[in-house]
């Protein structure tokens, strides 16, 4: 069967861009070897992203520059448009699925990986200055679980949060798993690190207030319900989230307006990503209609 | 150092109940071998639960009967009260941590496993009849992911949902991982399976309406917002949840009142467990204050 013309043309245009890889030990794809080990060690200014949805999302952002791509032959047809739009300097390696799995050290079901360069770190002040008048931002403290941080970014994107601030203890939202769980949102929602100095967590509320953001700290013993906070605060707001278990530090809660999610009483337990979704929905509902 | 008297007495009382296990191949603990393989095969009328929180929760329920317990020596002191309350017929095996890990086939960080008998299946009609006048129940369709189903049960418990109905495609909430992610809620919130016959999913709305429950189907194109649904329907309500991706079947949405969660517009993506949390919070807020 002869493929239709337009497919053939696409394939020709892309074919020149592809570097076939047959040997898992080929030095050109050394960066893709033993992906999980490298995830743990970190990659300096680079990070690894996977899956078509995440990579398409990243390509729409000016914050990242792709360094290279590793794709299975089977996935090329579905990604020709995306591959064609990559700058010429980006190497595109193509391998059989089994070779790709041997390179990565485990099965890459999504069939596409890319190495990208992080943007320069942004100061929290710049993100806060740039936010709209009724912006909602998130500030995360001690979120060390990649599933939870990924889920928080996903919810932030779904409800249009303007930015996410992360204390020094939070894990990396561009870690491969966090990025995947976020369905690419970690590459969409701007984020910045809060300073690492002692007392800086407590100063987060001062920083937020100086930029006109009301800090709303989620706590089981909060003084306002979410609905009351949504009714009272409709300008710039920051939602403060702590890790499950310890929660937010008492000094942080004391320096903020504390807000609670009313529950059934005898089972006071919500996942922190779910908590962020409930609070984002409640606080953005007024604006959203 | 001599331990205080009351600790010594507790230990003596418990010591007689413990059966030490030194050999991972001891036939008495055959049910605990290769836990993950057995998880996949299923255990018939039995299920495996892990961790102190889940097991303490289960002990408060009349729905389950423990068959046996496997605990590390290190964990015994923290669980003496729970162990002492077990019926005499329940065998309690105690092993060194390394032996327990060798039995299970992977590290059991929580240090305690138990084999329990499921209660008799309950008919959905009975759960719906028994629910209070303003009850909110959940009905899940095609939730095959244990993390998601566990998260849904956790949220149901947090917001006091009266029951959960599961279509035949939903995974088992008493599967070890779902139970763990639910923080024991899968053993607290009553659940029932909807019939497996063809067309039964569509009949779910008839079943619900016959019992006075308004079926509210979550859909991105729902006609009401969550807030509107919360204001309109304050009697018995059922929240219908479909799997991420395909969502609820069109016939199910057509037979129900469809409800949407308004989002930012360009990133219409929420995890189904997070969705359940947002909807439960919105629909129970009126009653909860």
Notes on the structure:
Chains A, B: GO terms for molecular function: RNA binding; RNA methyltransferase activity. Chains A, B: One of its GO terms (biological process) is RNA processing. The structure is a homodimer of 289-residue chains. With 289 residues, chain A is an alpha/beta fold. In chain A, the strands form two sheets. In chain A, strands 8-7-6-11-9-12-10 form a seven-stranded parallel β-sheet, with helices on both faces. Chain A has a five-stranded mixed β-sheet with strand order 1-4-3-5-2. In chain A, helix 10 packs parallel to helix 12 (272-288). The model of chain A is unreliable at 1-9 (pLDDT under 50). Chain A folds into two domains: 5-117, 60s Ribosomal Protein L30, Chain: A (2-Layer Sandwich), CATH 3.30.1330; 124-288, 3-Layer(aba) Sandwich (Alpha/beta knot), CATH 3.40.1280. Helix content of chain A is 38%, strand content 20%. Chain A has helices at 5-15, 35-41, 52-59, 76-84, 97-104, 124-130, 146-158, 176-181, 200-210, 226-232, 250-255, 272-288, and strands at 18-20, 46-50, 65-72, 91-95, 112-117, 136-141, 163-166, 191-193, 214-218, 224-225, 237-242, 257-260.
Provide a compact summary of the structure.
The structure is a homodimer of 289-residue chains. Chain A has 289 residues and is of the alpha/beta class.
């Amino acid at each position: 069967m002869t493929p239709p013309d337009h497919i053939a043309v696409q394939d020709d245009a892309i074919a020149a861009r592809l570097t076939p890889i047959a040997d898992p030990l080929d030095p050109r794809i050394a960066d893709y070897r033993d992906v999980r080990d490298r995830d743990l060690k970190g990659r300096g200014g680079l990070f690894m992203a996977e899956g078509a949805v995440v990579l398409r999302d990243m390509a729409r952002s000016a914050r990242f520059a792709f360094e290279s791509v590793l794709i299975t032959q089977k996935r090329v047809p579905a990604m020709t448009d995306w591959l064609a739009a990559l700058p010429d300097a980006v190497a595109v390696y193509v391998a059989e699925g089994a070779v790709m799995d041997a390179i990565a050290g485990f099965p890459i079901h999504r069939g596409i990986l890319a190495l990208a360069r992080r943007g320069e770190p942004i100061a929290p002040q710049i993100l806060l200055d740039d936010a709209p008048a009724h912006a909602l931002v998130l500030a995360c403290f001690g979120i060390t679980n990649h599933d939870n941080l990924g889920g928080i970014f996903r919810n932030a994107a779904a409800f249009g949060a303007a930015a996410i601030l992360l204390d020094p203890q939070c894990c990396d939202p561009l870690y491969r798993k966090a990025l995947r769980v976020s369905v690419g949102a970690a590459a969409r929602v701007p984020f910045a690190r809060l300073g690492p100095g002692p007392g800086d967590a407590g100063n987060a509320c001062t920083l937020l207030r100086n930029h006109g953001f009301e800090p709303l700290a989620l706590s089981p013993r909060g003084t306002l319900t979410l609905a009351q906070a949504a009714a009272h605060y409709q300008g710039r707001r920051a939602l403060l989230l702590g890790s499950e278990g310890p929660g937010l530090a008492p000094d942080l809660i004391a320096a903020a307006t504390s807000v609670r999610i009313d529950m059934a009483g005898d089972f006071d337990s919500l996942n922190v990503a779910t908590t962020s979704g409930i609070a984002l929905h409640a606080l953005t509902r007024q604006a959203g209609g």
